[in-house]
Amino acid sequence: MVLGLIPARFASTRLPGKPLVDLGGRSMIQRVVEQARQANLARVVVATDDARIQQHVQDFGGEAVLTRPDHPSGTDRLWEAFQQLGSPADVHCIVNIQGDEPFIHPGQINALADLFADAATAPDIATLVKPVLTDEELFSPHLPKVVLNQLGHAMYFSRHPLPYQRGREPEQWLAHHRYLRHLGLYAYKPTVLEQLTRLPVSPLEAAESLEQLRWLEAGFRIQCAETELEAFGIDTPEDAERARVRLAR
């Protein structure tokens, strides 16, 4: 059984009440839930810190659990939500679906869930990567990059382009190397998710402000699946307006 969990906090510095923002007649969180329900998930549950979000999800027929407001990360919120659901023993994979991506494609969710179909080969953690297509993406510190080994396991994540190309000007880098971007969609074995919540902040994580570096430093293997589909996260009022324009089209 594959369980989809969607962390959704009310507080947001740049867009307060983000999960409830209206996008073309439906809230952002409703759109995320509806997209997730099209994937091969046995159950989709919103994990929120606010009763208004919980009630709203229940009003449109979704499932939501109310979690503590003081979790340091979405990973911790997911673990509490899983426990509230009774830690079902038949769940072999938990997919962490970002609550601010109303256009998440069901195929992207399935790409991760499929990696856990065989218990003998299932990874500890899985995530998505996408080819970098523009210099703007490559050099944006807001779009983490990742380097993989030959088995498709993540070696390192960084806000800086990796690898550095010695002897070439930065504007030539994309023409001479295939760079990959990290998309913030994760899947875990339940036992691994529990272990992740016990890890302290690591030096690399503190330097880059990327939680997945904590997991790598602790020795967890992160399997990456590649997608050509774009991610569309909403963090600001401007992002929300672009989403409305996209929906209007």
From TrEMBL:
Its EC number is 2.7.7.38. GO terms for molecular function: 3-deoxy-manno-octulosonate cytidylyltransferase activity. It comes from Hymenobacter mellowenesis. InterPro entries: Cytidylyl_trans, KdsB, Nucleotide-diphossugar_trans. It holds the Pfam family CTP_transf_3. The keyword Phosphoprotein does not apply. It is an enzyme of class 2 (transferase). Gene3D superfamilies: Spore Coat Polysaccharide Biosynthesis Protein SpsA, Chain A. This is 3-deoxy-manno-octulosonate cytidylyltransferase. Pathway: Nucleotide-sugar biosynthesis; CMP-3-deoxy-D-manno-octulosonate biosynthesis; CMP-3-deoxy-D-manno-octulosonate from 3-deoxy-D-manno-octulosonate and CTP: step 1/1. The gene is kdsB. PANTHER family: 3-DEOXY-MANNO-OCTULOSONATE CYTIDYLYLTRANSFERASE (PTHR42866), 3-DEOXY-MANNO-OCTULOSONATE CYTIDYLYLTRANSFERASE, MITOCHONDRIAL (PTHR42866:SF2). Belongs to the KdsB family. SUPFAM superfamilies: Nucleotide-diphospho-sugar transferases. Keywords: Cytoplasm, Lipopolysaccharide biosynthesis, Nucleotidyltransferase, Transferase. It is found in: Cytoplasm. Activates KDO (a required 8-carbon sugar) for incorporation into bacterial lipopolysaccharide in Gram-negative bacteria. It catalyses: 3-deoxy-alpha-D-manno-oct-2-ulosonate + CTP = CMP-3-deoxy-beta-D-manno-octulosonate + diphosphate.
